[in-house]
Amino acid sequence: MPDTSAHQQLPPQKTPRWILLALSSGAFAAFNGLFAKLTTDTQTTAFAASLLSLFGAGTTTTDDHPILMLAIRGICLALNILCNIIMWALFTRALTASPSTTKVSITNTSANFLVTAVLGMVVFRERVGGLWWLGAAMMGTGCIIVGMRDEDGRS
């Protein structure tokens, strides 16, 4: 009987669960930062002013509606705390699901780094300069190197 083991196709590998947990944790960390900033930032005042004009308050300012400002900042604070709780729960679960805490930490940090930058560009219209892109490329390269090292069985 011929040996067909060398010609058998391996089933597609499923993404390890810890990767999804670490990526999600990093994303929630970024949202945690977003809501923290919205709790205290002037962008929140602009958002409240746009809500006032949307509901037909006309030319009134947010100073005329302190309860609305307090409510929006309170909602942002509550979302900040909720995202923080979710982030830590996901991160802790990723650490227990992975054989490598280093890989979890790097994956989490990378996701946080990238999502924070995108949220900064979209929500706060922040510019991301060349050094940021260089840092992102270096972080991506580091993730690949550490991932390859751990897959080879080296620690």
UniProtKB/TrEMBL annotation:
Coiled coil: none annotated. It holds the Pfam family EamA. It comes from Aspergillus saccharolyticus JOP 1030-1. This is EamA domain-containing protein. The chain crosses the membrane at residues 18-36, 67-92, 104-124, 130-148. It is a multi-pass membrane protein. The keyword Cytoplasm does not apply. Residues 17-147 form the EamA domain.
